[in-house]
Amino acid sequence: MANLLTARRARIGWDWTDWAAHIYLVLGTLIMFGPVLWLVLSSVKSESGLQAFPPTILPYEQASVEVPQRGGALKLFTVTAGAHAGETLAEVRRMGLQSQLVDPAAPDKLIRVKLEERTPVMRLHAAWENFTELFSRFAFGRIVWNSLFITVVATLITLLMNSMAAFALSKYKFAGRDPVFLLMLATLMIPPTIVLVPNYLIASQLGLTDTPWGVIWPAVATPTGVFLLRQYMLTLPDELIEAARMDNASEWRIYWRIVLPLSAPALAVLAIFSVMWRWNEFLWPMVVLTRSESFTLPLALNSFQGELTTQWHYLLAMTVLTLLPVTAIFMVLQKHIAQGIASAGVK
Amino acid sequence: MRHAIIAASLAVLLTSATARAGEVRIACYSDGNECESTEILAARFMQANPDIKIAIDKMSFKAIQESLPVQLAAGQGPDIVRTTDFGPIMAYMLDLTPYVKDPAYWEANYGGTLGWMRRDANDHGIYGLMTQLTISAPLVNKTLFDQAGVAVPKAGATWDEWATAVKQVKEATKIVGGMAWDRSGARFAGPSISMGATYFAADGSPAVIDDGFKAMASRYVAWAKDGTVKGDIWSQAATGYRDAFDDFANGRIAVYLSGSWQLSRLEKTVGDGFDWVVGAEPCGRGGCTGMPGGAAFVALKHSKHPKDVGAFLDYLASAPVYAEWMVMTSNVPANVALQKKGLPYKLSKAGTAAIQQFGADAATLTPLAYKLQGDVMSRPIFGAVADRIAAVMAGQMTLDQAYARITSDVADAVAASKK
Amino acid sequence: MNPISTLFAFLMNLPERPMRWAQGRLSKGRLGWVFVAPNLAVFALFTFLPIAFDIHYALTGGTNLLPSQRPYVGAENFASLLDCTDHFDANTCHRDLFWHGVWNTLRFVVFQVGLMLAFSLLTAIVLNRKIIGRSFFRAAFFYPVLLSPVVVALIWKWILQREGLLNAAMIGVGAEPTNWLLDPHWAFFWSVFVSIWAHMGFYTLILLAGLQAIPAEINEASQMDATPPWRHFRRITLPLLMPNVMVVLVLGLIRAVQVFDEVYVLTGGGPGSATVFVVQYIYKTGFADQIRQYGLAAAASLLLAGVLLVLTLAQMKGSQKKNG
């Protein structure tokens, strides 16, 4: 880091716009990334730690000490006022507005302190059990497999079908091409909420309910994907295709041997979007998948929400778990994304 | 050869979950550990009945409430569902009378709540088993009352007396708000029935707005204005349920109108942070009542194994199993005999006292409270009341406008349901 | 050869024969349809057919979800939605929540799309400079795009609630804590803010790509002429960036009009109905209410889709004119 800074400084000095730009970016990163960090830290807080106000950045829980003479683990408090001010004592019990404490070293003598004259001793403690208990609550392997299967297969089909359509829409001239493109784009206007019920009736007629295919098929034709890919393919020179035709390559071969590899950046963008959409998708799977063996991660995550209460500590842990794969894929594909998105605005 | 291997691996890749036939599927949501404890009992049941398979699908309440009616309309769905929302699925419920050993036992022990799942007074079917009975009542932070030197209002105290006491506590201890109610029309119904609201006209059709209702609504709004009630939970959202649990657990309010389902959560999060008790139901000229409620395991008509469904619910309903179940989930039983007998809960001293109080309350709720909870139109009524009173508290409309809106919202729902 | 590319080549060779056969029989134009067909078939089945269903729902009433068992009511659902004494005052409407939704959505679209464009543009311009650790910053600004709307809302709800991180920080610096989501103006502000937070990374990249496509000579030329930076931006950068800006506007607009989950989980539409949007009304009427007035929900969504279509077409027409 220091190296980087000096490398920059070795060139001509910074003017105020450089400073402003970097300050803007650092502040922006705090705002964009800080909340996510907060989520991750919160996911290892205990159920009562999550409720505490003011909230702590790091996960804390009240420290306790073993006092066998008093029947086991007792919670530790610091006395803030009175004769015992400053001492760290273990609480045996509470009586009304009084607390009965003992010195862990001399547990026989009860010390009585007013409630407001003691504060709990807190210690750092990550509640990993939020995570480990998840594994016993679900057939975790099965759920992860379902999510993976749906995400991978749907993404592959999406890439294939959308790029085929984009290829025709960008490289062929045929009657009805533009209306078809507009029609596909127009489906962006339909809020997904509203096609839920008819879609379920259709899926159930086709026997797709409670199978991963019930989630995959309705999702694979994405208007955004067709749009992105078409815009990108428009920038590919037609001469390449003409040359291949001279060599007597079939149209299908031209599509997958020439156009597809050249569209890699745009495909990478669509891939990350598709992965993210399918991995996070909730509303439609909730309707179409009802058996726990076909559940996906978001459905399992939401099962912590009852009618009247929500088990936040599990919900947060599960959220962090589901974030990991998307983050990993993003880091791998990150470089391509900027390049691929470039295409969206070209034409 | 290579192609064959690739094709074979593809085939493996594409094989997806195939549902096992011959199972009883239960769609279950939890507010605590209801589904997990049912799993334990189901495992025991399957050991005794090796030819029956029970599978429990744990999902969110939202998943059940929103997608179940669609699934049922398409002829799909589970065999049993845990829900509180009986109205939309009434047409799809299975009458268990031929499949349970002793319908009279059910009638005698679960009679009070069986009616909630019935279409009307002429319907005598057994459609499901309540997984618990919930009772709404004020939860009291006794430590705050003690610090303020104010006595917790006793049984028979009116809502006005409660409000005065709460206000004194608030002023003495400088807490944010005196009391808070869950943002829920069902919670609101207890106090307003106590104030004399009748909710129904003489012919049984919904008639929410009357003097009793107005007496409670106008008080509630006034209390929110002067800080007796911490109203932000209500005005915060335009629609939907919100709870005030955080405020109570963190000692920001002295009284919290919620219910028995909060018990295990209170035990876990409050611990000995402060002393809490369940207050007696506050009174008015309509009586002293909270609202009953709760979810049921409802049997569904299209099930291919109605006999197995009946057998499993019969097993859960039997007194010893049901008692054990209630202890596991820290819930008030819907079984009248068990309510009278009392159960050996594994709770702290405060928790045990609380659940005993809830159990005692179950017997004193007014018949109107039970009738309202079980009525087909109860949820549209509750929704309209919560949303419109909340709009008044947010300063968006006057009480009179809210009354008119509640009436027209409910009328719209009635009209739509009759088409 | 690596097994994945073998598998890929094997699979992609499978359609070769049928496609060659089709190519022999069809003209090139017709072959285009073959390429479009799979995608179009899925659209037809899971988008166009459901819309047809919805039109049927919108014209029928009752609570039954099976299309064949619903009584025809004509335009009653539309009439009921449009029934107002004064359309500019939602409180005078029969379906007041719908109209609160309409006006809030309109306000939201103006602020959200406008501000998001401004911030994405600013970020893109900054990122287009010689910046230390550019790819890190680019990734950081993009990351929230990966989060699901529900997660976005939960994170921010936690930060903004009365007992949240922001208020703790305000107390920390000695300021009065504010109930951010309880004040109508703040709640609206935060729903716009959070929505921008969640989506601006995507649009920033589109604009950044546009900026990077501007030939370096153009910038150098105006540096030589000592053109003031603001003038350079207005006269040269912005016109060249226009196509990208249009993409941002169209996509941003479509998404803003459909705003739902993020804000619903964050504010629940409150306080009062300050952040109720049209899609929330559709959701409530068609799914969340016990008596599901699905016809009403379908009618509302058709109205919404219609308005969107008109807006988008107008915008495209406008941009076409500008670009000559």
Q: Topology of this protein?
A:
The complex is a heterotrimer of chains A (347), B (419) and C (324).
Chain A: H1 2-10, H2 16-42, H3 47-51, E1 60-62, E2 64-67, E3 72-79, E4 88-95, E5 98-103, E6 106-114, E7 118-120, E8 122-124, H4 129-137, H5 140-171, H6 177-186, H7 196-205, H8 212-219, H9 223-234, H10 238-246, H11 251-262, H12 264-280, H13 283-288, H14 297-302, H15 312-341
Antiparallel strand pairs in A: 1-8, 2-3, 3-4, 3-7, 4-5, 5-6
Chain B: H1 2-14, E1 23-28, H2 34-48, E2 53-58, H3 61-73, E3 80-83, H4 103-114, E4 128-130, E5 134-141, H5 142-148, H6 159-173, E6 179-181, H7 185-194, H8 211-226, H9 232-235, H10 245-249, E7 255-259, H11 263-269, E8 276-278, E9 292-293, E10 296-299, H12 306-317, H13 319-329, H14 336-341, H15 349-364, H16 367-374, H17 378-393, H18 399-418
Parallel strand pairs in B: 1-2, 1-3, 6-7
Antiparallel strand pairs in B: 3-10, 4-10, 5-7, 5-8, 5-9
Chain C: H1 3-13, H2 16-25, H3 28-58, H4 76-82, H5 96-127, H6 134-142, H7 149-160, H8 165-172, H9 184-213, H10 216-224, H11 229-257, H12 261-267, H13 278-288, H14 294-322
Helix pairs in contact in C: 3-14, 4-14, 5-9, 5-11, 5-13, 6-9, 7-12, 9-11, 9-12, 11-14, 13-14
Describe the structure.
The complex is a heterotrimer of chains A (347), B (419) and C (324). Chain A is α+β, with helices and mostly antiparallel strands and 347 residues long. Chain A has helices at residues 2-10, 16-42, 47-51, 129-137, 140-171, 177-186, 196-205, 212-219, 223-234, 238-246, 251-262, 264-280, 283-288, 297-302, 312-341; strands spanning 60-62, 64-67, 72-79, 88-95, 98-103, 106-114, 118-120, 122-124. In chain A, strands 2, 3, 4, 5, 6 and 7 form a six-stranded antiparallel sheet that branches. Chain B has 419 residues and is of the alpha/beta class. Chain B has two domains: 22-133 and 294-344, Periplasmic binding protein-like II (D-Maltodextrin-Binding Protein, domain 2), CATH 3.40.190; 135-292 and 367-418, Periplasmic binding protein-like II (D-Maltodextrin-Binding Protein, domain 2, 3-Layer(aba) Sandwich). In chain B, 49% of the residues lie in helices and 11% in strands. Chain B is built from 18 helices and ten strands. The longest helix of chain B is centred in the last third of the chain and has 20 residues, at 399-418. Chain C is an all-alpha fold. Chain C folds into two domains: 3-58, no CATH class; 88-322, MetI-like fold (Orthogonal Bundle), CATH 1.10.3720.10. Chain C contains 14 helices and no strands. The model of chain C has no long low-confidence stretch (mean pLDDT 86). The chains are: A alpha+beta (347), B alpha/beta (419), C mainly alpha (324). Chains A and C meet through α1, α2, α5, α6 and α7 of A and α2, α3, α5, α6 and α7 of C.
